[in-house]
Amino acid sequence: MKNELNAITPDIQFTTGIVVFNNFEMYKEEAKAIARFISEFELTDSNVSDAKAMLAGARRVVQGLDKKRIEIKKTILAPYDDFASQIEELKAIVNDADSKIRNVIKDLENKEREEKRQKIVDVWTKRFTMYDLDGIPGLFNRWLTPQHLNKSMSMKKVEESMTAFLEQVQSDIEALNTFDDKESMIADYLTCFSLSEVFAHVKEREEREAQAKQVVEALNDEPITEPTATFIITGQKDILAAEALLKANGINFKRR
């Protein structure tokens, strides 16, 4: 049983389809004559029907020729269509085999990546105990990338990347522990793992707090003015009654 296709020149024979329309020029001249007659002839109510009949006859002839063209086209293309179907059948067979082997390769690669991931987990478990980072969850998934699982990256490179990451996080956490607002800063750090971003966030927060403080101080410095109202009361009796009512309720007022 052969396990490969022949690479020799395929044994395919074909002849070019030839169609000869021997009296084409005669048909062409007659069609042009009819068109010229209709464009130059003065059409009237009495002769327009004859002109339409003449044109209809010419159209039937052309339609008959077009029908013949379609029949010839089908005849010429029939061998090609059979050949194209054979090629498509070969392509389907090869593509199906290609799809199967691709799936096998993909399964093998996934298996290799999972085996490598387990090796990485084992190395991480041993190395992680060397750092004071037990209280920080999710560090492994934060560090691990698809590139670490690639066959092209050796375990040596993986361990170097792992060590660099853990050393950096350890150093950054120790630095953040020296600040008064360490809990908030560490929480911020664990979302980005970047000291520069943490300090940028702190600066932004301090600027917002300073602006808010300035607004409050500005409001406190403004003099508090009590609202006043003017009422015009006419008549001695009503004036005396209004004064008595204001005094009885402890309301400050001035009489003008």
Descriptors:
single chain; 256 residues; mainly alpha
Could you describe the 3D structure shown?
This protein is 70% helix and 0% strand. With 256 residues, it is an all-alpha fold. α1 (24-40) packs across α2 and α6 (182-192) packs across α7 (195-221). The longest helix has 81 residues, at 48-128.
Strand/helix succession: HHHHHHHH
- Contiguous runs where pLDDT drops below 50 for at least 5 residues: none
Shape: flat
Overall SS class: mainly alpha
Q: State mean pLDDT (0 to 100 scale).
A: 85
- Largest sheet features: none
Question: In percent, how much strand structure appears in the residues?
Answer: under 5%
Helix count equals 8
Query: Alpha-carbon distance between the termini?
Result: 125 Å
DSSP E strands, number = 0
**What share of residues is helical?**
over 70%
* Rg calculated over all Cα atoms: 48 Å
Give a short overview:
The protein is an all-alpha fold and 256 residues long. The protein is built from eight helices and no strands.
How do the helices and strands line up, and which of them pair or pack?
Layout: H1 24-40, H2 48-128, H3 139-143, H4 146-149, H5 155-176, H6 182-192, H7 195-221, H8 236-248
Helix pairs in contact: 1-2, 2-5, 6-7
